[in-house]
Amino acid sequence: MPPENRRSGRRIHAFWNASSLTLAPTIQWSVPINASISKLTAIGSQKVQFQLGGRYWAESPSGGPEDFGVSFKVTFLFPK
């Protein structure tokens, strides 16, 4: 695959919730760790991208998100 068709990227997300809007709010963090791989291919003349990813919540407040998550995406591409 030519280098111009390859993509890589990093995303860092930090979410916080304050329990109250006082002078000293309590800050709670949700820290997801995401990883994914993708493959661009053709089925006949139709370009298709497949992506498989996973998420682990490294830190989250009580009652917040937890455990692992998996996602699978299919994108049909229609280049001009």
Which tags fit this structure?
single chain; 80 residues; mainly beta; 4 strands; 56% strand; elongated; disordered N terminus
Helices and strands in order:
Blueprint: E1 15-18, E2 27-43, E3 46-59, E4 68-77
Antiparallel strand pairs: 1-2, 2-3, 3-4
Mean pLDDT across all amino acids: 78
- State the helix count: 0
CA-based shape: elongated
Structural class: mainly beta
> Which value, in Å, is the CA radius of gyration?
19 Å
Provide structural commentary.
This protein has one domain. The chain is 0% helix and 56% strand. It has no helices and 4 strands. A hairpin with an 8-residue loop joins strand 3 (46-59) and strand 4. It is elongated and about 55 Å long.
Give a concise summary.
The chain is an all-beta fold and 80 residues long. The chain contains no helices and four strands.
